[in-house]
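User: Please fill in residues for this 219-position structure.
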C-alpha cells in the first residue's frame, strides 16, 4: 500500500480521509499515516497529527518515495491568497495523490490531474479535462467536454453543463447549475443554488437565478 499524508484537518481534510477509508474498504490502496496541521496536535478522527504544515516537515517525509500527499486547504475561504503556502512546501506534482471515491462514475475518456479528490456519487462525462488540486464534492455532475482548471472547486450537487470551462480556482456552490458552453472566471465564486446562463468574469461573486454579480473576491 502507498502511504498518504493529508495536509489540513477538520473540514475538507476529514472529508478526504473518509474517501480514503471508503477506497480502502473496496480495494486496499492507501496507508493513511495522518495529518499535517498548524492548529491541531491531538489525533484527528483517530489519525495522528504528524507535524506543522511547513517545508521542513514535508521534506522529511519526501525522503520516502512511497509517501504521497493530499492538500485539502482549498475552499471558498482559502482561495488564491493562500496558494503560497502550497507552493512553499515544494512537493513535486507527481507526489500528490488523486483520490476517486469508489461510487463515482468517471468516463474512461476523462483526464484527471494530480492532487484531485472526487467524492461519492459524482458523475464525470467523457472528454472532460480535470486539472490539479481540484475538489469535486458528493453528487456533483460534470458534463461531457467540460474543463476544470487547477484549484477549481465544485460543491455538493452542483451541475456543470457540457463544454463548460471553470478557470483556475473557480468555485461553484452547492446546487448551482451552469448552462452549457459558459466559462467561470478565475477565482470567481458562484453561490448556492445559482443558475449561470452566461460567462462569469474573473474574481466575480455571483448569486441568484439567473446568476448576477454582486461583488468581487479581489476587493
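Assistant: Residues filled in for all 219 positions:
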Amino acid at each position: 500500500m502507498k502511504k498518504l499524508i493529508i495536509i489540513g484537518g477538520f473540514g475538507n481534510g476529514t472529508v478526504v480521509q473518509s474517501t480514503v477509508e471508503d477506497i480502502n474498504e473496496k480495494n486496499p490502496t492507501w496507508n493513511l499515516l495522518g495529518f499535517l496541521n498548524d492548529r491541531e496536535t491531538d489525533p484527528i478522527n483517530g489519525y495522528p497529527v504528524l507535524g506543522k504544515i511547513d517545508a521542513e516537515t514535508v521534506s522529511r517525509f519526501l525522503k520516502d518515495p512511497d509517501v504521497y500527499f493530499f492538500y485539502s486547504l482549498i475552499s471558498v475561504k482559502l482561495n488564491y491568497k493562500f496558494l503560497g503556502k502550497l507552493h512553499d512546501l515544494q512537493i513535486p506534482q507527481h507526489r500528490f495523490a488523486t483520490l476517486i471515491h469508489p461510487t463515482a462514475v468517471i468516463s474512461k475518456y476523462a483526464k484527471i490531474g494530480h492532487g484531485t479528490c472526487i467524492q461519492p456519487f459524482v458523475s464525470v462525462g467523457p472528454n472532460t479535462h480535470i486539472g490539479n488540486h481540484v475538489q469535486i464534492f458528493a453528487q456533483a455532475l460534470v458534463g461531457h467536454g467540460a474543463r476544470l482548471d487547477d484549484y477549481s472547486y465544485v460543491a455538493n450537487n452542483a451541475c456543470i453543463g457540457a463544454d463548460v470551462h471553470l478557470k483556475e480556482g473557480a468555485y461553484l456552490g452547492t446546487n448551482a447549475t451552469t448552462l452549457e458552453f459558459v466559462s467561470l472566471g478565475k477565482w470567481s465564486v458562484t453561490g448556492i443554488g445559482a443558475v449561470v446562463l452566461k460567462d462569469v468574469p474573473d474574481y466575480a461573486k455571483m448569486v441568484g437565478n439567473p446568476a448576477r454579480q454582486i461583488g468581487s473576491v479581489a476587493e
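For context: The two ends are 45 Å apart (CA to CA).
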